[in-house]
């Protein structure tokens, strides 16, 4: 295992009497992609902001492998909220960042990689939301950081644009061994990108480890049965199976005894649109904290 580039010890952060982070300790390994997931208000942004010195923790500390004074030469931070001067052109702000960070990066190549070549001379106020998001990730990478923090990686992007960003990040991770810390509401994104995931729940770290390990640990050989019931009035019959309601009158049941349960569902409950599958990270999530997801796969409840 490679050595740690960041060590977080006993972090605690409250806002008035609201505990946003409680006793969080972990290491970030050099060259890994760490994905942080959790419901709205779980503490993801607070954790990132504390790690990069924007917030001071109430307790605990964050140690970096490199000198703290030159920290911002080594890290890149994309915050959840970004404000850019709307009256500047894309290329102007890129050049400004390049100059400020004394970077020798090839801007044309970078703009191309982010699908922004055509927008080079577009005023920022005229950019689509997705392109602003791409630009903000690009700017985070201009100083060729060793560690990158990306809060809400691809929020606002369409599926094709998301995939593009994933590939760019994978490439800088593999080619340049850049350590990447991302937060996301999209579990498919984390499943695809992250070497390890951290699950935050109400400011507590409830899981840290490999994605497949999380799935194995929590699913324990169970299968997921997903279905709709023909008669919504029959939903009480699902109680004994511990069915989890999803959107659109769909339900999920976890069971090691999938054949028996299926037979009962078909004969005694009446179901349609049936799917039987091995659990994904999303399913494990639903199970750990009873989360629900919206149609796009975002976590919507606590
Ligand atoms: N600057 C602040 N002042 C007061 N409360 C804050 C502040 N920042 C965060 N909080 C509170 O701390 C808790 C954690 O918030 P945080 O923004 O870290 O969550 P999050 O996981 O990033 O959520 P989201 O998914 O919505 O981005 C929330 O209850 C939030 O209201
Ligand atoms: Mg946040």
From TrEMBL:
<dbReference type="GO" id="GO:0016887">
    <property type="term" value="F:ATP hydrolysis activity"/>
</dbReference>
<protein>
    <submittedName>
        <fullName>ABC transporter ATP-binding protein</fullName>
    </submittedName>
</protein>
<dbReference type="InterPro" id="IPR003593">
    <property type="entry name" value="AAA+_ATPase"/>
</dbReference>
<dbReference type="InterPro" id="IPR050763">
    <property type="entry name" value="ABC_transporter_ATP-binding"/>
</dbReference>
<keyword id="KW-0067">ATP-binding</keyword>
<dbReference type="Pfam" id="PF00005">
    <property type="entry name" value="ABC_tran"/>
</dbReference>
<dbReference type="GO" id="GO:0005524">
    <property type="term" value="F:ATP binding"/>
</dbReference>
<dbReference type="InterPro" id="IPR003439">
    <property type="entry name" value="ABC_transporter-like_ATP-bd"/>
</dbReference>
<keyword id="KW-0813">Transport</keyword>
<feature type="domain" description="ABC transporter">
    <location>
        <begin position="6"/>
        <end position="227"/>
    </location>
</feature>
<dbReference type="InterPro" id="IPR027417">
    <property type="entry name" value="P-loop_NTPase"/>
</dbReference>
<comment type="similarity">
    <text>Belongs to the ABC transporter superfamily.</text>
</comment>
<keyword id="KW-0547">Nucleotide-binding</keyword>
